[in-house]
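Final report, closing paragraph on structural work. Over the funding period we assembled a curated collection of sequence-structure pairs, and we close with a single example.
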Amino acid sequence: MNFLNHFRGYYRLAASDFLSNYATTVAATTIKLWLVNSLLAGVQESSKYLTIYLMLSAISELITGLFSGTVAEHYGVLHTTMSACLLRMGAGIGVIVVIVWSQPSAHTYANLLFWIVSLLVMFTTACDTFYFPAISSFVNRITESKKLTRVLSLLRFSSLMGTLIGPAVAGLAGSTQLYIPILLTETLALLLTVVLIWRISKTAGYRHIYENTSSTLPELFTNWRQGIKTFAANRTYRLLFPFAVVEAVANSGLGFAIIFYFTTQLHDIQSYGWYLSALSAGYAISYLIAPQCSHIFSFAQLLTASHILITVCLCSLAVTRIGVIAVFWGFLFAFSQAIISPAFQSIFIQSVDQSLVAQVMSVFISVVAAIGAISYPAWDWMYTVTGNNATVLVICASGLHGFLVLLCAFLYPQLKSIRTA
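Its predicted structure, as stored:
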């Protein structure tokens, strides 16, 4: 990739994406396993606690996402990213302190400890929300339009290599109870991320990208309102919004159901970690070939094929009762889902003015996250009504993707008009 020679920061940026995503996934998975297998073990209605935990994380993403892009543009996308990583480190250390405190008397203070950890995770989620829009804006400004999809695929591949390793390491936490040492690796990864982003910010010739782009608070709020208006008025965003929403609801259900599917039905905690790693592997490999697929097939064809394959994979996963086979279907599910992602992201970035990329994308992410958060109680209700049967939830998620196949067929003429760079 010759274009990388023109900006060495791509190498550092790919490494920072890897480390940041490793930190996010290893912490998120380890904390969920600690909640289910340690703090809430034996607690009645533990699924409701997990629902509250997931909802609070999603609400944090919603609230922060509404303004994270505007704040990043105002204070400088790289400076904001470094600050967010440092704050995540602090909150992560707070979670470690809580786990240490809980070890002698986890069940005595289970309710209090749950709320403390949930608030800390809300804070880390809020900080994490700044990363993606800010880095997307930065990449858009330093990359030629015709190379954007290819660059995004490269960066997403490196980031998903981080999520490939993170859940596997977290799976060890569930089987060995080594929660604290594994969470300390999150702290180290975030520290290295800060160093890499700082090195990028010192690259000569790109000072105008990471310096402040606004000087007053009124201008910040003006940019924020403009981002929301652009999101609501943009034809491409309106056309693709239903797909993102339905997929977010399905992913919420899967995120809720899968941990119970492996722990209570398959009784295989280690395979849960490998399943999450298989997801990341599927995403990573798919991102590598996605640019070539975008040149061979139209966006409409890729979108339709993606949801057909996802529906098949989830139906197959639902009837599987062997951990290794479930991991295999998880890999194929992720591969099918990711094949459209770089083109999807490229279209979103190129559909708005360069100065509004971070604002509009953060609004989009937050709205989708909000709908995902709203769906968590419905998934919990379904889980309870079906007698704690996680398989039913997986089948329902596959049904939502089946609905998207029908939506692709209905909107196919409009989807054919969308072109990627």
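Residues 1-9 have pLDDT under 50 and may be disordered. The chain has 17 helices and no strands. We thank the funder for supporting this effort.
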